[in-house]
């Protein structure tokens, strides 16, 4: 038997705090500990914490229960209310407003209030990973994909029942959809296995969906990919996830962008990185070279005399369009000095001559090239 913590302490509020302060404290803790919002390995722990704070809130937000608790402590509550009674009158919906916390209260505490929602529950969201080219990401594109998902049955409109057939109350759970059992302080509810939690059974199941109210099928979905998308960006397509229960609203489809690798360009944020080979006379004497850009055109770039290998030049606004604001990133061009692999005898002669009259064949680089260049350099 563990000693129960003080409700005010659990919520981190003073004994004289107002109901608004209690609500505020509970809300921020609840959003922090909701099991759907934490890493999988922390689910159990935060589920327990969530129950603890919710119980504290249920008591302290109810004037009668709070008075009772102030006077008699936990004994004043535990001796008087069942765990279901503690939660029953608490007003959780006004705490969270538009934040959807899922069926957690129904699941944990067996409150009656969420039953209807659970019956017509929303379908599950789906994810689809879509690889696109860097050019498609730059231009934006239209895509069509096929997904295999459940859709609401068009014959029974999701009810699962044949036309003119009735649904009747499930005899096992008496229409509640759940059967209860107790564990310690809390009573838990388990989904009824006879009706699958629906609370009803169908006399004459729909011939098309066999009473499931939904069927699996392949759908073709078209959508736009906006210019500037990057790997990991997700595009939400409303209502294209799995069908809901009993005709409930469908979940959403999230298309997650993946970028195919490009032979010439690497990308980091809105910037593009490339490298070009430049002959030794050009870097030594200076000149003009042509540099590839993502749209396939070449732009001219000036190379100043005495440019060292590894030097990076910036082409303003030749990068990717920004998804969030106007404008584009830059293109960064790294100079690689091209060493000829074959020389004619005349070229060899000239290079020998050059070497002969140059005294500084080897010198140390004074310029720090490391850490300047793109970190994903391949
Ligand atoms: Zn059907
Ligand atoms: Zn049942």
SSE topology:
Blueprint (H helix, E strand, L loop, with lengths): L6 H5 L7 H15 L9 H18 L2 H10 L1 H5 L4 H6 L4 H4 L7 H6 L5 H5 L6 E7 L1 H6 L1 E12 L14 E3 L8 E6 L2 E6 L8 E3 L11 E12 L8 E4 L15 E7 L6 E3 L2 E9 H6 L1 E6 L5 E6 L8 E4 L15 E8 L6 H13 L21
Parallel strand pairs: 1-9, 11-15
Antiparallel strand pairs: 2-7, 3-6, 4-5, 8-9, 10-11, 12-13, 14-15
The protein binds zinc ion (2 copies).
The site of one zinc ion has 8 residues, from loops.
Q: Can you tell me about this structure?
A:
With 378 residues, the chain is α+β, with helices and mostly antiparallel strands. The protein has three domains: 7-97, DnaJ domain (Helix Hairpins, Orthogonal Bundle); 111-158 and 213-261, HSP40/DNAj peptide-binding domain (Sandwich); 266-357, HSP40/DNAj peptide-binding domain, CATH 2.60.260.20. Helices cover 26% and strands 25% of the residues. It has helices at 7-11, 19-33, 43-60, 63-72, 74-78, 83-88, 93-96, 104-109, 115-119, 134-139, 280-285, 345-357, and strands spanning 126-132, 141-152, 167-169, 178-183, 186-191, 200-202, 214-225, 234-237, 253-259, 266-268, 271-279, 287-292, 298-303, 312-315, 331-338. The protein has a four-stranded mixed β-sheet. A three-stranded mixed β-sheet has the order 1-9-8. α2 (19-33) packs antiparallel against α3. The longest helix has 18 residues, at 43-60. The protein is elongated. Residues 110-118 have low confidence and may be disordered. The structure holds zinc ion (ZN) (2 copies).
């Amino acid at each position: 038997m563990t000693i129960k913590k003080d409700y005010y302490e659990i919520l981190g509020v003073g004994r004289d705090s107002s109901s608004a302060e209690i609500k505020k404290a509970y809300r921020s803790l609840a959003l922090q500990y909701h099991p759907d919002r934490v890493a999988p390995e922390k689910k159990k722990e935060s589920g327990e914490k969530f129950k603890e704070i919710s119980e504290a809130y249920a008591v302290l937000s109810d004037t009668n229960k709070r008075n009772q608790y102030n006077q008699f402590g936990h004994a004043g509550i535990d001796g008087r209310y069942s765990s279901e009674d503690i939660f029953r009158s608490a007003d959780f919906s006004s705490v969270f407003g538009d934040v959807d916390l899922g069926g957690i209260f129904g699941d944990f505490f067996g409150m009656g209030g969420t039953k209807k929602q659970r019956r017509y529950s929303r379908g599950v969201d789906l994810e689809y990973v879509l690889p696109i080219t860097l050019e498609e990401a730059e231009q934006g594109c239209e895509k069509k994909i096929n997904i295999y998902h459940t859709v609401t049955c068009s014959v029974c409109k999701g009810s699962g029942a044949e036309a003119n057939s009735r649904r009747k109350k499930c005899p096992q759970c008496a229409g509640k959809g759940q059967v209860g059992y107790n564990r310690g302080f809390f009573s838990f509810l388990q989904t009824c296995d006879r009706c699958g939690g629906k609370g009803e059974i169908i006399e004459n199941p729909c011939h098309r969906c066999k009473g499931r109210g939904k069927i699996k099928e392949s759908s073709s979905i078209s959508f736009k990919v906006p210019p500037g998308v990057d790997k990991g960006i997700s595009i939400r397509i409303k209502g294209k996830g799995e069908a809901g229960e009993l005709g409930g609203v469908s979940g959403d489809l999230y298309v997650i962008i993946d970028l195919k690798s490009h032979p010439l360009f690497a990308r980091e944020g809105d910037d593009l990185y490339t490298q070009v080979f430049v002959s030794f006379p050009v870097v030594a004497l200076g000149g003009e070279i042509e540099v590839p850009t993502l749209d396939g055109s070449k732009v001219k770039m000036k190379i100043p005399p005495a440019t060292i290998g590894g030097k990076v030049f910036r082409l303003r606004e030749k990068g990717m369009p920004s998804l969030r604001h106007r404008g584009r990133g830059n293109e960064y061009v790294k100079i690689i000095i091209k060493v000829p692999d074959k020389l004619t005898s005349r070229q060899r002669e000239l290079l020998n001559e050059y070497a002969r009259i140059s005294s500084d064949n080897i010198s140390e680089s004074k310029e720090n090239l490391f850490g300047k260049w793109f970190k994903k350099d391949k």
